[in-house]
Amino acid sequence: MTEHAGEIVGKARRVIEAYAALGLKIATAESCTGGMIAAALTDIAGSSAVFERGFVTYSNEAKIAMIGVDPASLRADGAVSEAVARQMAEGALRAADADVTVSVTGIAGPAGGSAAKPVGLVHFACARGGVTRHLEKRFGDLGRSAIRGASVSVALDLLLEAVRDQPAC
């Protein structure tokens, strides 16, 4: 994540400032980033006014137990899918006292990819006010650290977009 470190700190600071100004709370639901989004946000002074909680749901079992992802979706679509990313964000919104949630699930590598779901494929979702936005990124096989860092950056962008002149994600 080092190549993205300065960019991530700046984005995380903007997220904390924007949400604090609006009195909104954030929760995260993370798989391939393993809590890196939560860490980026809580590295910023004043984050306690904004960051409600983070769910690190690395395993399918954690996705089901902690945030209510449907086991049938995991079987049918796989953990790295639009359906699961959406359910992660929506489940985190139900499970937390938050106004906006962001989720990330992907294949950071070096193993685990396939032709249909290559290393570098990451699905994101942002939920707010009954609206869930999905975003798919194909970063390519940049290496595990770079994929995870890029994913944190995109998740922070989604959180910023969720409050930038719009009522929902």
Automatic annotation (TrEMBL):
SUPFAM superfamilies: CinA-like
Pfam families documented for this protein: CinA
InterPro entries registered for this protein in UniProt: CinA-like_C (IPR036653), CinA_C (IPR008136)
Residue span(s) of domain CinA C-terminal: 13-162
Official protein name in the record: CinA family protein
Species in which this protein is naturally found: Aurantimonas marianensis
Organism phylogeny: Bacteria, Pseudomonadati, Pseudomonadota, Alphaproteobacteria, Hyphomicrobiales
